[in-house]
């Protein structure tokens, strides 16, 4: 009963295991009617930024500052998806050649990228799913509470609200800055410290705010919490839980650099991985219970022997079920693509372009820059307001000028740019000129 389980054996029994699962393929949008999507990418040269951009089938006529929203995939990832899809269409027992445990391969690749261990990584389909698994699974004792901020996205706010509904825990929100452009690391850390209660169990924050582009000093927050936790019982230790989506793939920090307890991120945004894929990394899995039955080996062994698993692991937290495996298995190519370029080089490129954009925008009289100019408190998101113009109007007007942007889904909304590895300095200058012409 405890023998090694693999996918082929379980398929034969009408089940699926050995390949843990949780990706969901989004409904594909109609392909753009441009010649850009039919271009064949040149051989990959990670040292050449023009070549990196050429790996994407993006319309070359557009300056793409919203690529992070539903990110395109580079050629290596697209080819892997098509290869796996063709294999599954030809033989539903298909596995990637030479890889009988593709989910383990993904975990190993993700762990190398994160500076983590494979067993610390659950596979998800998005940041939101990861946060949902985390906040739905956390076990709170009577009297413990949750601290979050006013600046977080729906996934965090709803996640901790549902946690409170389930457990009866109190949720508090703190304000980290009044003017995001003038945010300071000391005030951010101080506000969180002041918001802590003697039995705060969960500190839920976001690495890079999608509302303003402010990047939190996660390491400094973690160090502050480490001091607070020295005087606490292990079961009352404050856990630092991070929505990492707008830092993951844009910044070079690994989990040891961040110092958090949990990090959730989609891999289909700044990492430019397959759509419908993500990870939840953790080092305190014993603090939560699985929410959805897993399909990894430990789940099947426990089920078949009639015994509950002894302890929560990342494998047990990874939701089971049949998934879009052609997308999941291509995650290895996405991590490999970024590693070939170099995490440090990706961060430098992202921030250099963001700084160039911010410096240009703040010279325009009718533009208010909201994102901090400092690279220490920002990443690739740049948010601003245009006097007398609704952000959605600005998005439409910029689109007419072949500059693709987005708005923030907050109140009040802002105009938002994202500089990334598919952006060029010339496109940044073009965007600044286009914004200056908006009246």
From TrEMBL:
Named cofactor requirement(s) = pyridoxal 5'-phosphate
Named from the GO MF annotations, one term is:
transaminase activity
Pfam family, any one? Aminotran_5
Per the database record, which ranges form the Aminotransferase class V domain? 106-407
Read off the SUPFAM superfamilies from this record.
PLP-dependent transferases (SSF53383)
Give the domain of life: Bacteria
Q: Which InterPro entries match?
A: Aminotrans_V_dom, Aminotrans_V_PyrdxlP_BS, PyrdxlP-dep_Trfase, PyrdxlP-dep_Trfase_major, PyrdxlP-dep_Trfase_small, TAT_signal
Which keywords, in A-to-Z order, does the entry hold? Aminotransferase, Pyridoxal phosphate, Signal, Transferase
Cell inner membrane in keyword set: no
Cited PANTHER family:
CYSTEINE DESULFURASE, CYSTEINE DESULFURASE 1, CHLOROPLASTIC
Catalysed reactions listed for this entry: (sulfur carrier)-H + L-cysteine = (sulfur carrier)-SH + L-alanine
Q: Which organism's genome codes for this protein? A: Nonomuraea indica
Signal peptide region: 1-24
- What protein name is recorded for this chain? Aminotransferase class V-fold PLP-dependent enzyme
Identify the stretch(es) annotated as Disordered: 24-44
């Amino acid at each position: 009963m405890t023998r090694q389980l693999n996918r082929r054996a379980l398929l034969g029994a009408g089940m699926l295991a050995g390949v843990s699962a949780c990706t969901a393929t989004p409904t594909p949008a109609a392909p753009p009617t441009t010649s850009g999507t039919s271009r064949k990418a040149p051989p990959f040269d990670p040292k050449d930024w023009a070549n990196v951009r050429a790996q994407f089938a993006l319309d070359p006529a557009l300056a793409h500052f919203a690529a992070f929203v539903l990110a395109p995939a580079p050629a290596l990832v697209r080819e892997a998806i098509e290869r796996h899809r063709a294999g599954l269409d030809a033989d539903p027992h298909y596995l990637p050649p030479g890889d009988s445990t593709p989910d383990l391969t993904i975990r190993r690749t993700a762990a190398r990228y994160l500076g983590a261990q494979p067993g610390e990584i659950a596979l998800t389909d998005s940041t939101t799913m990861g946060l949902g698994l985390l906040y739905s699974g956390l076990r709170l004792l009577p009297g413990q509470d949750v601290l979050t901020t006013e600046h977080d996205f729906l996934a965090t706010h709803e996640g901790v609200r549902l946690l409170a509904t389930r457990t009866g825990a109190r949720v508090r929100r703190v304000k980290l800055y009044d003017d995001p452009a003038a945010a300071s690391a000391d005030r951010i850390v101080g506000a969180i410290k002041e918001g802590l209660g003697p039995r705060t169990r969960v500190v839920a924050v976001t690495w890079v705010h999608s509302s303003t582009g402010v990047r939190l000093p996660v390491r400094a927050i973690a160090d502050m919490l480490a001091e607070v936790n020295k005087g606490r019982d292990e079961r009352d230790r404050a856990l630092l839980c991070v929505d990492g989506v707008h830092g993951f793939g844009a910044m070079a920090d690994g989990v040891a650099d961040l110092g958090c307890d949990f990090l959730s991120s989609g891999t289909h945004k700044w990492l430019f991985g397959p759509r419908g894929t993500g990870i939840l990394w953790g080092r305190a899995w014993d603090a939560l219970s699985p929410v959805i039955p897993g399909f990894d080996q430990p789940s099947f062994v426990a089920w078949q022997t009639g015994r509950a698993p002894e302890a929560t692991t990342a494998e047990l937290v990874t939701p089971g079920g049949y998934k879009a495996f052609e997308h999941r298995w291509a995650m290895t190519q996405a991590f490999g693509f970024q590693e070939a370029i170099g995490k440090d080089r990706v961060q430098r490129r992202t921030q250099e372009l963001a700084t160039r954009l911010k410096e240009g925008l703040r010279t325009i009289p009718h533009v208010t820059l909201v994102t901090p100019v400092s690279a220490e408190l920002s990443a690739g998101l740049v948010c601003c307001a245009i006097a007398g113009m609704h952000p959605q109007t600005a998005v439409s007007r910029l689109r007419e000028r072949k500059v693709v942007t987005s708005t923030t889904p907050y109140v009040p909304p802002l105009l938002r740019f994202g500089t990334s590895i598919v952006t060029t300095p010339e496109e940044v200058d073009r965007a600044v000129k286009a914004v200056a012409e908006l009246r």
